[in-house]
Amino acid sequence: MTAETLTDEPMTEKQVSTKRLTGFGVLMWLCGLFGVMFIVNGIFVYHAVSTHRGEDVPRSYRQGMEYNEVLAQRSTQAAINWSATLDRSDDDAVRLTVLNSQGFPVSDLQFEAKIRHPADRNKDQVIAIQSSGDGYAVDLPDVTGRWTLQANTKDGTPFFFEADLWL
Question: Are residues 125 and 138 in contact, defined by beta-carbon separation less than 8 angstroms?
Answer without folding.
Answer: no
